[in-house]
Amino acid sequence: MSGFRLGWIRRILAATGLLGAAVIGIGAAGTASAQDRRQNAPGEFDFYVLSLSWSPSFCEEAAERGHSGRSQQAQCGGRPFSFVVHGLWPQYEHGFPNYCERPAPRLDRNIMTSMLDLMPAPGLIFNEWDKHGTCSGLSPRAYFETVRKARAAVKIPPEFIELSDPKTISPADIEDAFVRVNPGLSNAAVAVTCNRSRLSEVRICMSKDLQFRACDEIDRRACRRDQVLMPPVRGG
Q1: Is 67 a catalytic residue?
Q2: pTM of this prediction?
Q3: Most Cβ neighbours (<10 Å): which of 40, 46, 67, 228?
Q4: Which residues contact 187 (CB under 8 A, 6 or more apart)?
């Protein structure tokens, strides 16, 4: 369109008071297209991420920061934990919902205590329900039953279960170890995250019916270090 013709159209719109409305309409449409229409609607999501935290890294980092709260004491006390469940997170193909009900329905303390074998910190369990569980569209009991089923669907590589000495390993080798022992799991469905030099988490993408599935966006956020340290299991 020529500059003359565009200027002529603008003068007509300005004269009729429509130019501002046209600009506002374009802006509103752009905002609407950027916002996922399902944003924070409970039960409206595409897949789950099961996040498995390497507990020895968490405990070493908590000690370095001088944190000694109840959650740290519960997880980093005498019992040796290897991988523990950080959470089961509803995801969109791009982005994720959180805090889908405010205030969140109250989580019964009996449900919380029933999960301590997988998620050994009461504060973590309450927070995961408020932030992620409310987006599942499930009741508290059904959500944590789903967390347990998701965890049961993933086998931990035996070399990581009772790690007695520090281990330096590449993120790719950690992924490969999980793929080897979990039929149907592919590298496209696993992402390893790190914090400074240590292994932080292994994140596994699962469909709503807890089948392994690829997840490009999660994979793109994976650790890019050549090597990460796995501190030994406490007591090992």
Answers
A1: no
A2: 0.82
A3: 228
A4: 172, 175, 176, 179
